[in-house]
Specification:
517 residues; single chain; disordered N terminus; 9-stranded mixed beta sheet
């Protein structure tokens, strides 16, 4: 078994879940003028406060449609370079700059979309029509036959004297972990399956249910859930819904694989640059050409399929922002073993557009706590994802949808791009220099700068409402070089939808995407 590659994938998954960014305020930024901060990493007080924003008159449209870009002095390509005195931090910018073609940018109040019966019915009808919904907890249990097969497999290893058939004890020993035997016990696994066999019915039960959010099994009314199963087009789909203090809406629909085992999808690693350290992806993946062949449809066809679902959902003010080739593989219950990727498809990420101004597609879920002492739960960002291939829908996720309410300011004053660029170059040096230890150096290569909305709120006051504000995000690759006595080591990360810094376009403050403020 490819133990090191398996560990690499697990760590890649942790990486892709998003990283915390610095939340700061630049002292001396007022009336649209940026100055280098003396104490740049101070939290902006009360993120949604309208006192931080100035109203502006709408722009007059230009004949070539470039009104806002011209007004903000945006170059066709952002070119810049910088370095720290000791060269431990280096910045290189050769970036495409994306600016919406609009003449005014309002600030919008948003709240959490009600996760009510009407919305649940619309989601159910969109994906499953009038197909019956079954209780998922009973439907997706292993049958006696499947459990017996697993028992037979483990007992065969026991008869051979192979007490570490999946290599986990050996890997723990190789890594020098304490008590490596604790990571897998063959006899204990056999005992667990035998008990499960005794408690499993002869046949899988199919109990029809109506999708509705109920309290979890602890009786906590603040956390509600539903777990269902649907048979459609020759496949079984898992249909789960959750609502809690942090994720106000969490809907996931995914096609099950053989024997109803879940399919595990990665998220577009073909478009990521992960080199060195734990980020090696060699030997674990089919070529891009092979994956495209496995997907069986083009990227354009995939988006067309996802667009039809979005239309049925009534989410017509969203558009596809990022499309990437993804891989899927079985992830059955039982001892963790390496399963090769057997599926491929396209993952499409959607964000909202309001009067031609988009919400920027960025990976951070926004679920970090403001402090260990915080009594307010975080509020995750609105996100919609699909994964489709020649067989149709493979997976869909709908997270934390907003309800867009009234305008707070009908047109907000923005800093010019040269002012924003100056803030970015200074703040990138300050932020990433803090990540460098003696003997290390770090280099950022910025390839894209994007102007769009993000949602901010005050996590110390309220986690159910906020405002959409315009921000600049900077994307690219990060390279780290470590000098060691035995030689240099190098790691490189290029995550297309992970921003190096998010800067409020109206007042120049740093937005901490992990906190949503």
């Amino acid at each position: 078994m490819k133990r090191k590659q398996l560990l690499s994938l697990l760590l890649c998954g942790a990486l892709l879940s998003g990283m915390a960014q610095g939340c700061a305020q630049l002292s001396g930024i007022a009336q649209g003028h940026a100055k280098t901060p003396e104490h740049p990493l101070v939290r902006e007080k009360k993120g949604p406060s309208l006192e931080n924003y100035e109203k502006a008159d709408p722009l007059e449209p230009a004949a070539d449609g470039s009104t806002l870009a011209r007004h903000l002095q945006v170059p066709d390509t952002y070119e810049a370079s910088a370095a720290s005195d000791d060269n431990s931090f280096q910045l290189s910018c050769h970036a495409q700059v994306t600016v919406p073609d609009v003449t005014q940018i309002p600030l919008w109040k948003v709240s959490q979309k009600p996760f009510d019966e009407a919305w649940i019915s619309q989601v159910t009808e969109t994906f499953f029509g009038d197909a019956p919904i079954y209780d998922g907890d009973s439907y997706f249990r292993f049958s006696k036959e499947q459990i017996q097969e697993r028992i037979n497999e483990l007992k065969a290893y026991e008869a051979e004297g192979n007490l570490d058939p999946y290599g986990y004890i050996a890997y723990a020993q190789e890594e020098g972990w304490e008590n490596p035997e604790q990571y897998f016990n063959l006899q204990e696994s056999i005992s667990i399956y035998e008990k499960e066999y005794d408690n499993t019915p002869e046949t899988i039960e199919k109990t029809k249910v109506t999708p509705v959010l109920s309290e979890d099994d602890t009786g906590d009314s603040s956390s509600r859930y539903f777990e269902g199963a649907v048979e459609l087009d020759g496949s079984a789909y898992r249909y789960s819904m959750k609502a809690g203090p942090a994720n106000s809406m969490d809907i996931k629909i995914s096609r099950a694989g053989t024997d109803n085992s879940p399919l595990e999808w990665n998220y577009s690693l073909y478009d990521y640059q992960l080199e060195g350290g734990y980020y090696s992806m060699e030997n674990d993946f089919p070529s891009r050409e092979k994956a495209e062949e496995m997907a069986g449809i083009t990227e354009k066809q995939a988006v067309e399929i996802a667009d039809r679902y979005m239309e049925k959902l009534g989410l017509t003010d969203f558009s596809a922002k990022t499309t990437a080739l993804s891989l899927g593989r079985l992830h059955p219950s039982g001892p963790p073993v390496y399963y090769p990727y057997s599926e491929a498809g396209y993952r499409i990420s959607y964000t909202r557009d309001i009067q031609g101004f988009p919400v920027t597609d960025e990976v951070d879920p926004g679920l970090s706590m403001p402090s260990m002492d915080s009594t307010t739960a975080p509020w995750g960002y609105e996100k919609v994802y699909f994964c489709v291939n020649k067989d149709g829908l493979q997976q869909a996720e709908i997270l934390n949808l907003y309800q867009v309410e009234e305008q707070q300011i009908d047109n907000v004053t923005l800093l010019s791009f040269p002012e924003i660029a100056d803030i970015f170059e200074n703040m990138a040096r300050i932020k990433y220099s803090d990540y460098v230890s003696p003997g290390e150096s770090i280099r950022l290569d910025v390839t894209k700068a994007v102007l769009g909305y993000t949602r901010i709120y005050d996590p110390d006051t309220d986690n159910t409402s906020g405002i959409l504000v315009p921000v600049w995000d900077f994307f690219g690759t990060k390279e780290r070089l470590v000098n060691e006595e035995s030689g240099n080591s190098r790691t490189k990360e290029g995550i297309p939808d992970q921003s190096f810094l998010t800067i409020n376009a109206a007042n120049g403050t740093m937005v901490d995407r992990s906190l949503g403020s």
